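Pasting as-is:
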Amino acid sequence: MSVEDIVLRVKRYECRLVEITGGEPLIQENVHKLIAKLCDEAFEVMIETGGHMDISKVDQRVKRIMDLKCPSSGESGKMYWKNLEVLTDSDEVKFVIGNREDYDWAKTIVNDHQLGVKCTVLFSPVFDKMNYKDLAEWILRDHLPVRMQLQIHKFIWPPDMRGV
């Protein structure tokens, strides 16, 4: 599907907010062209990225939501750490917390890189694995400058359902 076809399809929804996500959108060949076209058409655009690709090349009109992969994901070694240097106050960084080790790791990253000052920081418990109350209590006890979020779509639809 061409960029033009995608934009036409998006326009049919009569919604001005578009989030580009799914896998790693920054590896898609025409993602930057799509982003520019959506922004030029006055859409509010967000991109959710896995954090292992350079986000500095993303159009500045876009809200970047970057995952920082915690140790229990098995993906933390793939992070592109220079991304932390280009974050702005319109960006978000999300940690999906699976256990206490992940929490302590994320807390260190937030504190060492002053992420709470640079951007919005989100802590999300791994669905059906991490106890939500425990995570909330740890955040409150440590006075972390983060927001806790739940994966609401997994409460509304079956947790393994795609495309929601």
